[in-house]
Amino acid sequence: MECKYYKPVGLYSDNSLVGFAMYGFFPEEGENGRVWLDGFLIDARYQGLGLGSIMLKALIQRLTKEYNCNESI
């Protein structure tokens, strides 16, 4: 099943694909819509290097800016 709101993205470090994430904005949810980070994966070969923490922080900053978020849960 396809959902038009999700955006899949590759997570790269030094031009190497190290993971995958999927996020989206769902305008019908809540009073002002809702941003979802629905998938976040780091390839097993790159785990334990701190990349997950770095990528997650960068992705949250991107979502905050892209969707003008001012609150989180």
Task: Please explain how this structure is put together.
This protein is an alpha+beta fold. It is 22% helix and 38% strand. It is built from one helix and three strands, in the order βββα. It has one helix spanning 51-66, and strands spanning 6-13, 16-26, 34-42. The chain has a three-stranded antiparallel sheet, covered by helices on one side. It is elongated.
Shape: elongated
Q: Can you count the beta strands? A: 3
Q: Percent helix among the residues?
A: 10-25%
What letter string, H or E per element, gives the SSE order?
EEEH
The mean pLDDT is 90
Unreliable spans: none
Question: Largest beta sheet: what is the strand line-up?
Answer: 1-2-3
- Give the count of helical stretches: 1
Radius of gyration (Å): 13 Å
Report, as a whole number of angstroms, the end-to-end distance: 27 Å
Largest sheet: 3 strands, antiparallel
SSE-based structural type? alpha+beta
Strand content: 35-45%
Condensed summary:
This protein has one helix and three strands; from the N terminus they run βββα. With 73 residues, it is of the alpha+beta class.
Looking at this protein, list some descriptive labels:
22% helix; three-stranded antiparallel β-sheet; alpha+beta; elongated; 73 residues
How do the helices and strands line up, and which of them pair or pack?
Blueprint: E1 6-13, E2 16-26, E3 34-42, H1 51-66
Antiparallel strand pairs: 1-2, 2-3
